[in-house]
Amino acid sequence: MELSNKLRWDQFLILATALMSPALKVLCNDILSLKVAGDPVLTPNSVCLRLAGLSKRQMRMCVRSPDVTASALQGIQVAIHECQHHLRDQRWNCSSLEGHDPEDVRKCFRESAFSLALLAAGVAHSVATACSMGKLRGCGCEAKRRQDDDKIRLKLTQLQLQTLQKGGVGLSMTRSLPTELNSHHGNLPANLRSTHPSALLKPLPDELSSMQETWEWGGCSHDVRFGDRFSRDWLDSRGSPRDIHARMRIHNNRVGRQVVTDNMKKKCKCHGTSGSCQFKTCWHVSPEFRLVGSLLKDKFLSAIFVNSQNKNNGVFNPRAGNGASGSTGGLNGGRRRSMSRELVYFEKSPDFCERDASIDSPGTHGRICNKTSYSTDSCSSLCCGRGHNILKQTRSERCNCRFHWCCYVLCEECRLTEWVNVCK
Questions:
Q1: What is the edge-to-edge ordering of all strands in the sheet holding 279-285?
Q2: Bias regions of kind Gly residues — which residues (predicted)?
Q3: Cα angle at 294 between 288 and 296, to 5 degrees?
Q4: What's the pTM?
Q5: Cβ partners under 8 Å of residue 317, min gap 6
Q6: From CA 384, how far away is CA 61, in angstroms rounded?
Q7: How many CB atoms sit inside 10 A of residue 417's CB?
Q8: Distance from C-alpha of 116 to C-alpha of 231, rounded to nearest angstrom
Q9: Which residues contact 101 (CB under 8 A, 6 or more apart)?
């Protein structure tokens, strides 16, 4: 993949190039040149002035929201880390993304489509997660699914009193009602202020089941819409929407963000007396980013090859044999595929065997291969027919990395001593 602008974005890198200690270690975030972990004060001076190559639109966004920008940049690094994980056995393994502006991918290979989608997903995911953590001034929990705490407590109190009236708890439970029941009883409607019976019957199974299924939105749902919008404004602004490169970028960016949105999960917390689950409060959380990467890897393997003619009409035309169409989909093994949720590309990938800066290929010389494999990590495939050497190697690798806001990563150092097969 050619990077038209060879600006070094080394100040973006969160990950250090090597770990010097075998213990769990805090790596400073070179994005902001911070030397301490924790919650720094993020200002335009500490963020925006350190970033080279920003467009005017991006600079305005950064000055307006430096904390969100820092979160977005951290999302880019999480995405690069994930890209390297999923393509670790491929000839092009995302390693070159760390040395350049990852937004400036100009080639339109299948690998380009995957990396663009993953970067857009990383920004949306990181910003939405930081919002829910209360780390960003411009956003918080998703307002649409945010229930008023007093209303939730009132709802719980009503259900508990109904349970008492129907015989849901015995005398032993009435003496240990939750604090919200007692503290808010004086504010209840008159029809709910009843004397607890001295002899109570247990509820019928169907009544108990219906009570267990009662839930309301509560907690703090991740504001994925805010993350999606910031990712779109940050990454989709470059280039004319009629240019085929820009259209491919915008399309694949949207597919990446959509994977995050489509895989939001509902988490719930039970409320009730003595460990019961009379009532649930639920909230939406972003999917694990490893899942996002895996789903996009599947789309990478089935990406659609489109015509490269730039007809200036904003429409992709799939090439024959793809089993897809731009609007309603096409046939693929008897099933219709919609291009709207698929990755697209219009340049056939080179072999990536040799170093070639014009296509962003680092080559495969020195790569470790698997001589017993028949897959893409085999020595015959990865070494491109050049053969391999067998060496005893002791090396240190960063492993089990966990990204933290803002802006550092915790990694362990894994030391390995083994015989390896290395491409000539």
A1: 215-217, 279-285, 265-271
A2: 323-333
A3: 105
A4: 0.72
A5: 306, 307, 309, 326
A6: 45
A7: 9
A8: 12
A9: 3, 5, 7, 9, 53
